[in-house]
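Hi team,

As requested, here is the filled-out complex form for the flavin-adenine dinucleotide run. I kept the field names the same as last time so the parser does not choke. Let me know if anything looks off before we queue the next batch.

— J.
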Amino acid sequence: MSSSPTQSPGGRRARFDELRARVSGTVAERHEPSYDELVTPWNLAVAMRPAAVVAPLSAADVATAVAFARAHDMTVGVQATGHGAVSSLAGHVLLATRHLDEVAVHPEQGWARVGAGVRWTRVIEEAARCGLAPLNGSSPDVGVVGYTTGGGVGPMARTFGLAADRVRAFDVVTGDGVLRRVTPREHPDLFFALRGGKGAGGIVTAVELDLLPLASFYGGALYFAGEDAPGVVDRWRAWSRTLPEQATTSFAILQVPPDAPGTPPPLAGRMAIGVRFLWVGDPQHGARLLDEMRAAAPVLLDDAAVKPYTKVGSVHADPVDPLPGHEEGMLLTDLTDEAAARLLAVAGPGSGSPQLMVEVRQLGGAYAREADHPCAFTHRDAAFSVLAVGIALDPAVVPHARWLCTALADWDTGGIWPNHGPPHDATSARRAYDEPTLARLAAVAERYDPDGVLAAAAFARRSAPAART
Ligand SMILES: Cc1cc2nc3c(=O)[nH]c(=O)nc-3n(C[C@H](O)[C@H](O)[C@H](O)COP(=O)(O)OP(=O)(O)OC[C@H]3O[C@@H](n4cnc5c(N)ncnc54)[C@H](O)[C@@H]3O)c2cc1C
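And here is what came back:
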């Protein structure tokens, strides 16, 4: 498979007409009005420039588009929301899954079937009508399938594990253009690869996942002034170590612009630190546990309360509107006194940090345990995750994020979550996966995508041990 298509624009157009005639969904090339609307990702820092975008209406459309790309020597990428956009796909085909929008909740058996274009918000709302909850991420605006195929570490990760741990089945179109049903017994190699391997196993058209009997929770965030960050972080480090697994917590040093929509006045245009807490258990017990953090410094804003699960997005309060973001993540073996001091020196009060957010999540608990079926998510032994998010257009953001990683290098596991450093080349792939996992992902790519049609599988082929010898 070549890395860019060789046909002339005229020849390509004629061929996309052939595709248009064979699918029920939209096919738009660059000159067509719906192209920009379909390709523009949530992360505006990535300029998507595929030769054409296909918005399928069915799994059959997905299979037709993959077979077409295979026949015409193109690769195929996939986008639901563009929260995780990494590549322009210049000259190739983008599948925009937004119309694959089925959500069917099965309350008696506690599971849901969810189409590839669905965001967590809809699953949360539809499950909540039956007193159930999914294992979504911090932002309900993110796509279910993109999140889950990257493992999915959410605001209840210490209590219930990863989203990928709760998958029952996928419907997926593999690179050979075949629509397959994937479960622990049917194509177990794909079942392994699709849970953590991002899109390397294929293009998911629907996923079936377990829901939890959870109508409400105790939690939210406590916000303190940025200048109190050293004391808050110090207290959080000691306090978080004492928490049972019913609690998942993180802190985030925030610098929200004064004009950011929806920001509460005490937080706008200043440095603040938020301590996030989600407690699954007796609410009074959770409130008492959080009282210890309330005493760390004067609280600017106390958002913790008993909430219906539909309010889970309030715990992290991630931005909803599209922005040109740059993310830099890493995983830590520990957050010692020295590590916390270095983090605060680079990103805390007086540091001049340009980041919108520098976040540390406590891991462990159910996150650290393999689920019933092994999967391609590798870094269960990390103790903390770190994520810096800034505006990509600010020239200070990338060097500062690298500086932060250097400052924490003594505790760096060397790993990264596939969702925070989407694997796209050998270096990022070796951070996202260990060698045995890379070898298994490469074997899956060879078997189900022999012509290298899937853009998201390229990293597995390039970085597998055999490919490097
Ligand atoms: C505000 C925000 C909050 C976040 N919070 C968390 C969090 O708490 N925990 C966490 O783990 N991650 C988190 N993430 C990262 C997020 O999970 C990834 O960016 C994820 O890839 C987004 O999926 P998407 O479908 O919305 O994005 P898209 O950009 O549409 O897709 C990203 C990638 O997902 C894969 N993908 C999407 N659809 C399919 C499909 N149908 N078949 C196969 N592969 C597919 C592809 O590799 C694709 O390139 C967050 C990101 C943002 C921007």
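Two things worth flagging: The first strand starts at residue 26 and ends at 29. Confidence is low (pLDDT under 50) at residues 1-6.

Thanks,
J.
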